[in-house]
Amino acid sequence: MSNTTQLLRFITAGSVDDGKSTLIGRLLHDSKSIFEDQLSAISKASEKRGMAAVDLSLLTDGLQAEREQGITIDVAYRYFATPKRKFIIGDTPGHEQYTRNMVTAASTANLVVILIDARKGVLVQTRRHTYLASLVGVPHIVLAVNKMDMVDYSEARFNEICAEYRAFAAQLNLHDITCIPLSALVGDMVVERGEQLKWYQGPTLMEKLESVAIDHDVNTTSFRYPVQWVCRPQTEEYHDFRGFMGRIEAGEVAVGDEITVLPSGRSSKVKEIVTYDGKLQRAYAPQSVALTLEDEIDISRGDMFVSSNVLPQVAKEFEAMLCWLSEAPLDKNRKYLVKHTTRTVKSLFSRLEYRVDVNTLEHHSVEKLNMNDIARVAMKVQQPLVFDSYAIDRATGSFIVIDEATNNTVAAGMIA
Amino acid sequence: MSSHTFTHLDALESESIHIMREVAAECKNPALLFSGGKDSIVMLRLAEKAFRPAKFPFPLVHIDTEHNFPEVIATRDKLAADLGERLIVRSLEDSIKRGTIIIKDLDKPRNPYQSVTLLETIAEFGFDACMGGARRDEEKARAKERIFSFRDEFGQWDPKSQRPELWDLYNTRVHNGENIRVFPISNWTEMDIWQYIGREKLHIPSIYYAHEREVIRRGNSVIPVSHLVQPKPREKVEVMSVRFRTVGDMTCTAPVESTARNVQEIIEETSTTRITERGATRMDDQTSDASMELRKKEGYF
Q1: Ranges of each domain in chain A
Q2: B99 to chain A nearest CA, in Å?
Q3: Rounded to an integer, what distance in angstroms lies between the CA atom of residue B223 and that of residue B47?
Q4: Which end of chain B has fewer surrounding CB within 10 Å, N or C?
Q5: What ipTM describes this predicted complex?
């Protein structure tokens, strides 16, 4: 790995029966990312549980309760690297809290690997995983048709599964789909091509992970810059310095660009782009920088600098898709906090439009929201938010809902 | 981004800066835990990138076990002074004198007791957020911890009821008396740290580089001889070329055999090693399968 490798975040969706842990184990093992002491620790643990072979799933089960009960509680993050890329895997369990965990892990992912057992084909859970990936806007999907060794490496079976899956995914407006036949157990088409799938000409899973283009996953057209922190050193050298610090969430900015500050609507020009490593002429998403402006405008955290050409929406009312995460159900009579970009405001749920059955994608009328429910809602906020539709920009279209009484994060929202 | 290459180090750096600025903006009284070890030295550079040309909007805090390597403490003091930032040091000895830590053998590893002094320091200054340089690749309990990790009044971590963490919208809210531990370099690996030290030309304690040292072999471990660790009868003192992959309590931090005398050579060794960082060097993590998880539940960062 050199200093010019890129970072790819991906998640795997599928149950233990589909060979998810085996697949992750295979990726780590064949890319030489499992260490000897880890292998010896899980060998010991497997033996203690009376298992004949080393259970690679123990690698990802981190907590004592999980190891004792043989279950996975929560999202775990694993890291590995090849000479081409560094990878972060969000590993989510496939139990009853699945929706909540998958939405959480998918929120930062560039790619999702959806696992299918070649013998079983497209199942209800495959549809659920795919719907959630589309809901959270994961840009790239890999359909890993696993256990090809159990169907005699049949090309016809693979094509049949892919055709069915593509037809389903098209309904969800998903287009970047790569179908790969593989056997995680044997190792075919994971890192090595193997000998049994000569009819398949596409990339191995690892080749796909190493080559998928991620530069354009962020919105590159319109500049979006939520102000995080105002830097006022008040030293002699920097007496009048007012740097507006933040991370470029979309697009790019150059010295001299005209920007609009929202929600106030005042305009100015970018005077300097300041970083610790020196001043820049131009900066791009997702760089963290500090901007100074030509004019003195009253600006604080929660304001957003945007390109004056393409303005986002500024509103106190909007509709959103919501995933309810908390064990305590939604109480429509209460106010909740909404954290959106760098702004936190009070909010009310004015209407619950419908609930989505994640298995059938059918809409149902809805009176209350429980954990793992996904629903379309109408919301009202006390102060205006500056936002884009989530489909256009994940960063300016997403929010979390916080219960002020418990301070828990109770829901994740995606603005329609 | 067409004409601009954004590398994995750029991505990690920008994420960490974003996290530190969220802490500064949303927490009332944050602190940055700084030990003089390599990860916390990276944290310091990230804080410079996040807040310069201003001063840090938080003090640096070190919980000193008094079992630290002298080179590390010297680096700690020098870096804090060079940056002109405020460094608060609280020692386990203070807690021992107060009677809140009772130790039978003063020379035994002290990491388990660090939590006590840390919690006392948090109470003394009223910190509501402590940033630490822990990484998820270090240990399997850490792999499941959030970047913003909520702790109750007793400093305890409850792994089963963690707040969901989505996108980079961090929930920083706490009630009085509770606090948050924040890990801005959660997503960095040991390799990333070394590449960043190389790229930024960071000054780190000399014991991270290969040097000749007197050691004793005990079981599978190589233990450095110091005023705290003396050979027992019939134990043989050897001189070996070693370096430290982590630096902690002198009595339980083992060096690895190495000839890597600069960052590039360490990167080469790191890319071919077959043993994890803590597996090779931390005897305190090996007492049980869940040592780290148990310590974190008690308030360890």
Answers
A1: 7-216, 224-307, 313-415
A2: 32
A3: 34
A4: N
A5: 0.91
